[in-house]
Write a structure and sequence with these properties.
alpha/beta, Rossmann fold, 16% strand
Length: 208
């Protein structure tokens, strides 16, 4: 999934439900992202540990009523999967960052310079259009989920350079793809048989 594509074209709820029904317990959701930090350069991978949702109108729950369900997302990504991704990046030699906050914007437009600078000042490390609500919906289904941000560009306002274009994103994303495949080939065989209890029991105590 790439942050230049309209996010409303993705049926997150149906896709994740189909995975759950098929018996899937672990989900890796890599995403193309723009950097909000000079030290996070195009080509880097960021194993995100937090996100900030700046989207609107997306179907982001399976519990539309009458039952109220409040799943904790204080730690939104599986630490087991995150640990494997961090180790994998080191093993295959990908320049990477062990943690980072992912700001998810509505799209399909890119950020203004003012927005980009504001996201950075508020603690964001990378910006993307598609990473929410996928991760949260996975948590509601008690699927263990993690994302890795494939940095394709500096967001507007970072480094004072030229604004990002869709062409820039596509070019660097294509270069990142082969390394992402190599990372997945390293991580997948090492995923444990038993699910991460931090996400596999996410619904415990969530209902009112």
């Amino acid at each position: 999934m790439n942050h230049q594509f309209p996010p409303h074209a993705i049926n997150y709820r149906a896709n994740l439900w189909a995975l759950k029904e098929a018996g899937v317990r672990w989900v890796l959701g890599p995403c193309s992202s723009g950097s909000l930090r000079p030290e996070i350069t195009p080509g880097d991978f960021v194993v995100c540990d937090q996100y900030v949702d700046r989207t609107s109108g997306r179907q982001d729950t399976y519990y539309d009523g009458p039952e109220a369900v409040h799943v904790s997302t204080a730690e939104p990504y599986s630490p087991v999967l995150r640990g494997l991704l961090v180790s994998g990046c080191g093993a295959i030699g990908v320049p990477s960052h062990d943690a980072g906050t992912l700001v998810v914007i509505q799209g399909p437009r890119f950020s203004t310079r003012a927005e980009s600078e504001w996201f950075s000042r508020m603690g964001g490390d990378v910006v993307n259009m598609t990473a929410y609500p996928e991760g949260h919906l996975a948590r509601e289904l008690e699927l263990c989920y993690a994302t890795v941000a494939l940095v394709t560009d500096y967001d507007a306002g970072v480094h004072g350079g030229a604004p990002v274009t869709a062409g820039d994103v596509v070019r660097v994303f294509a270069e990142n793809n082969s390394r992402m495949r190599e990372l997945l080939e390293w991580v997948i065989p090492r995923i444990p048989d038993e699910p991460d209890p931090s996400c596999a029991s996410a619904l415990a105590g969530a209902g009112l």
